[in-house]
Amino acid sequence: MDKNRPYFKIVQSIIQEGQETGEFKKGQTPDRITDLVTRNVRGSLYDWCLHDDGEYDLVEETLDVMKLILFGLKNS
What we know:
Elements: H1 6-20, H2 30-50, H3 58-73
């Protein structure tokens, strides 16, 4: 994966800013969290492509995954 792509840099800057403001935990580096987030989004896209029966809601699935990730990152 090219970490110089705009998508990767945008996600990474959001994670970094969240850690700097104390909104996100600092247990992992912004680079590592960005890898996990982008990998999960890519996985949702891949699954959506495999399920051509119309029963896979890409937006709903991606939102569910992102909520789980962000809830796990949230500082208590």
